[in-house]
Amino acid sequence: SYELTQPPSVSVSPGQTARITCSGDALPKKYASWYQQKPGRAPVLVIYKDSQRPSGIPERFSGSSSGTTVTLTISGVQAEDEADYSCQSADSSGSYQVFGGGTKLTVL
Amino acid sequence: EVQLVESGGGLIQPGGSLRLSCAGSGFTVSSYYMNWVRQAPGKGLEWVSVIYSGGSKYYADSVKGRFTISRDSSKNTVYLQLNSLRVEDTAVYYCARGDTVATTPFDYWGQGTLVTVSS
Asked: What are phi and psi of A21, to 5 degrees?
């Protein structure tokens, strides 16, 4: 079955830039989305179609794609950005969705 | 305002059945690709199923043949019937709205409903 691979954890100091990667064989042909989830809360969409930001999401959140890897970048990280971040995309058929294992972002 | 409200979770024995509901408001459920996503305790997100606006349905391999997604346009509600439940089905089940022409992105989520499968 198709898999998306993320690092389990990323740590940054406030004001620094955090980069979270997600790798998958179908990513060159399928869009990815990113979701932020805080403890006890439902996920929130922060990036879609690799690099599009929904309304209401701060500009410090951005996304990019290169080959089989997509990257979520958070510039000028704030304490409130500490959360789990999961990438999501479809398999090559487009009919089945997959989430990455999630990355815990810790703000030191 | 778009809202999704799940209900129907609870404690159920292995082998049992449960029906989850997801009531939508502020939009028309049948015009969107509607999804169920679950999260086991302490684990990541797992996509479970989708029902297209046109009616096609797809399931994750882990639930295929046991779970059934459906909708009632008159009630603006999506359902997930869970049969032959296993301990590993224990999770918070979220309803998530997709696009009008594609499964993703999941732009709105419900608050989730907890399903616990245990003897």
From this structure: -100, 160
36-65 in chain B: CB under 8 A from chain A: 37, 44-47, 50, 58, 60-61
Least confident range from A17-31, A47-61, B1-15, B97-111: namely B97-111
CB B47 within 8 A of CB A99: yes
The Cα–Cα gap between B73 and B79 comes to: 11
Q: In this structure, what token pair is assigned to residue B70?
A: 């459906």
Residue with tokens 């979701």: A35
Using the Cβ of B112 and the Cβ atoms of chain A, whether some distance falls under 8 Å is answered with yes
Quote the tokens at residue B91. Answer: 């999770």
A·B CB contacts under 8 A: 59
List the structure tokens of A33: 């989305």
pLDDT (mean) for B5-25? 98
Q: Is B110 on the interface with A (CB under 8 A)?
A: yes
Return the pLDDT at B66. 98
pLDDT value at residue B101:
84
8 A C-beta contact, residue B80 and residue B18: no
Residue of B nearest to A57 (CA): B107
Confidence band, pLDDT 50/70/90 cuts, at residue B103: confident
| B9–A contact, CB cutoff 8 A | no
